[in-house]
Amino acid sequence: MKIFKSLVQFIKISKNESSQRIDNFLKKKLKNISKNNIYKILRKGEVRVNKKRVKPKYKIKTQDLIRIPPLKYFHVVKQQLTCESYVHFNVQASILYEDKYLLILNKPSGIAVHKGSGISSGIIEKLRNVYPKNSFLELVHRLDRGTSGILLIAKKRSILCNLHKQLREGKIYKDYLILVHGRCNFKNKTVSAPLKKKLYLNKNLNFRKQKVLIDKNGKLAKTKFNVIEKFQNMTLLKVITETGRMHQIRVHAQHIHHPIVCDDLYGNLKKKETILINKEINRIFLHAFNIRFQHPNTLKNLHITAPLDKILIKYLKKLRNSANLKNLA
Predict the structure, then answer these.
(1) CA 197 remoteness from chain centre
(2) Which CATH number does the domain 84-328 belong to among 3.30.413.10, 1.10.10.10, 3.10.50.30, 3.30.2350.10?
(3) Which of the following is catalytic: 64, 144, 175, 263?
């Protein structure tokens, strides 16, 4: 790990960069600078817009000239990986919906939505290569690398801002499917448990990773679990999140003592090893299968569903066959 010091930077805001808060803009531009330091230089007036001090909530405009002061930062040497899933990712085959404002994909498991944490490229980087004429392509939300299912991409900043507003106001409804260990003794269950991020260094790849814990001082998080189907020692659940915290579903599932099948961070590792040895499933059983929201331009209600991949379908079929055989015995 080395310490570097950057030079003074001057950035002129383009049309595609305008209409966003300056703190959010700086977080994207200054990847190696912590959020605390970004807010510190804003508070002290070291960041200037058109030679004037601004508050973090200031929305930058086209042609604004931003001065960023010299900054010290740590550089961690990363082992950059390009996963096989990324190499074989077929954009066209994954499209669920597309127009000139939006792109909705059925993201496969095993591919990151963006680069970082030792990954050299993700879906958004792939899309920018596939759509070189689109000057603006941004993720509306994120999915964990192992999670599959619906992923929204905005093709215009105005669309991104509208969808972010809908997310904040709870007007975008997302449903997930998860398979958990154990037979749930409830039909419906709501979990309200605050979540807090914890950073730790991954010793093998030499970069920081985040894990989320339940903490009374954390951020509000609320998850609804609804039983769809019960098997001998597993349960298929539909999940609705009322907040969008990192790893929320995974941590709340662990909290109610029903960890998600093949979750290597919050799951039952012994049971995962048994499943992997039998070569039944090699990914976390977490899928974003349904989304409902108002189209930002047409104002029509969109309802998109993403089918499960072959691995998950095959595993569910095996569980159902096993249950039928037990009933016949």
Answers:
(1) 14
(2) 3.30.2350.10
(3) 144
